[in-house]
Amino acid sequence: MAEIPVYAMVENRVVDDRLTYSGVVKAGPAVPIHIDLEGQEPIVVRQTLQAGDTLKWGDLAGVVSGKPYFVLPGPLPLYRNLSRGDAGDDVLALQRALLQLGYPSSESGHMDSATMDAASSFFASEGFALSSGRMPTEQSQQVEPGATPKTTAPVDAKTPALSIPYRQLIALPVASATVVSALNIGQKVTPESPLAMFQAEDNFVEFIAEVQQAESLKAGQDVTVRVAEKQMTGRITGLGPFTDAGDGQRAGHPVTVEPTSKADLVLLTPNLSVTVAGQGSAAEALAVPLSGIRQDAEGTYVLRSSGDGRNSKVPATRVAITILRSGGGFAAVSGDLSQGDEVQIS
Predict the structure, then answer these.
(1) What 3-state DSSP class applies to 272?
(2) Which uninterrupted H or E stretch holds 317?
(3) What is the pLDDT of residue 134?
(4) Residue 287: how many CB atoms within 10 A of its CB?
(5) Which residues contact residue 247 at a Cβ distance below 8 angstroms, ignoring those fewer than 6 apart?
(6) Taking the alpha carbons of 62, 67, 68, 69 in that order, is the dihedral positive or negative?
(7) Residue 228: how many CB atoms within 10 A of its CB?
(8) Residues of the chain with pLDDT under 70
């Protein structure tokens, strides 16, 4: 029985030669707000944060056992309560934090009246006052009524003075973060149950690349991420070490991808499955099925039908082609072909 040739039509179509990977959206790590319990019974008496809220510099993170806890710009290397007359790098860090919050203060590294006033105003913005502490070193000593003060006399350490409680000031590493969870009124703060949890880093995409695939990937490389019916441009930000398969995970290198545009973050819902396409191209071109491409010593070619196509008794014509790219069972080609031509399938 004579072999009946089978033909396929040359068409304009998108041919995508990019490697694709199955990925998943992961939430940015959650960071706890720990407080120094100071031996107290740490009960939340005022809840100021709820899941989904935006936590910003200067916000009141909560009131525990009557004490307010604020978040300030970091770094904030505080290790002692600060009173007027103190000096050091911790004082300078606090002054800079207060300035960023809009409370005028010097940047001298010395606790002066302006810095104390700024801190007092900051606490007062939420209805709180600074606590009483030790005697400031700059303040003159107490004297008997009618006596002449002596500035060289020893300081009375029993005299109460305003003090900035460093334990109630918490550094927030970014200007704003998303609250993941927060304790309710009446709950106890413990090392295992922090006052609140916040997400300072954005959601990201992660996929697993096999060893050979990982060789073509590097940090800073742009990729395309398909999320449902939409797609966005992402950038590889990390290529982790090889990990063995386990707990339902594939073996390979974990690769992290972040969107190049912040506006696309709304598409990244945690645990959502996505597809990541690597480098390459995806464009419309004249395309033929891969099964229609032939090669011999003279080069790459296709057999184009002659006459009235598959019913013609005229032999098919050899047409030399160049393969531009291939993917999805098709090859984008250039050569003496036109849309609607028919090529013989091997």
Answers:
(1) coil
(2) strand 317-327
(3) 39
(4) 25
(5) none
(6) negative
(7) 10
(8) 1-3, 132-160, 245-248, 307-314
